[in-house]
Amino acid sequence: MEDNVKKKTSEKSRRSFIKKSGIAVVGGTVIYPSGLMALNSSKNDIIKVGLIGCGGRGTGAASQALAADPNTELVAMGDVFEDRLTEAYNQLIKLKPNQVKVEASHKFVGFDAYKKVLETDVDVVLLTTPPAFRPEHLKAAVEAGKHTFCEKPVAVDAPGVRKVLEASKKAKEKKLNVVSGFCFRHDTMNIETMNRVLGGDIGEIRAVTAYRNGGELWYKDRKPDWTDMTYQMRNWYYQNWLSGDFLVEQAVHSCDLISWTMNNEMPIKAIGSGGRQVRTDKKYGNIYDHFATEFTYANGSKSTLFARQQANTQGRNTVEAFGSDGVAYLNLYGQSEIKGKKPWRYRGERNDMFQAEHDKLFAAIRSGNPINDGELMANSTMMGILSRMVGYTGQEITWEDAFNSKEQLGPNFEDYSWDLKFEMPPIAIPGKTKFV
Hints:
The protein is of the alpha/beta class. It contains 14 helices and 17 strands.
């Protein structure tokens, strides 16, 4: 994803930035409060970036961050695996040779690599590790006074969601930017479509249907020297304590799109189903390969989500909103149209939504007017977790009960190590697996 969208950064005077940011000036010396980077809005200031999580998504996010502003530099990188860090660095130095300034002393490896990145003088961090790490990493980033790009989903269980909400609240108090990786909200076609839907072009919304159907993904064979923890980390996608299951890791985008269509209102309850029809081999860990969920809202309206990951099956990534005056159809990889009293079809160009989310973040840093996606990203993630809960248990579960759940899928964060003996949770069986 490279340089498709370039927004001009906002130009404000140093005095205006100081006034808006609440920075004190004592005896001619600028005093920066905790949580604000010592940076004025001049385009000549270098914004220093740290990358935490150097997989494919992290490499892409770093490239987009550097493309978002001409005066950004990647100065620190961290990952639990050295080979992933090295591969990411080699790719980025080829893509952005003038902006990658990561010295050997700023390449950190291990479960504590995130701490070491945060101890450097970076201004903004990109949180792109497997989802299980996100709540603790966001909490630590906010405590360190860093702006953050926080990839989706932001947690794998309800305790993690609550931790993210608390960290986001503190970020707002510190005037720190928190931008989420729910990228479909940054696509020009989706934005115009949703503006029309929420503007009343299809009337009162009565139902929403979303599909996220796709095929199989990667798998890495176990090597003789790998510990159990190494194996699970290398194949994190198939361990629900690391990924949240594929519904939370990938189809959470559809939850976010449903939420957007419903004007960010959360459902009051859900019921659904799910299972493993194709992913029956032990190598697929404990995740499912299909889910179907019905969400109910306070006014009685419904939304449904169908998600599947099975090889050689029909792919689909769509959202349909049914209103009193028409129907809006959004094909995330195709076209968008409205049928009814106000027919319309999107005929504009598409932007690079991955680039656009970083443009938004760095423009906000430059302007001194922080943005905070914390509540939105936590709620959409929680919607995915609720969907997984009803699929795993076969029970109807309320939003309130799900949000207050005490179920923690993985080990305590502070116990992570390569020698950790942790047995992944058993494969859920609807009707037998209990809601916690």
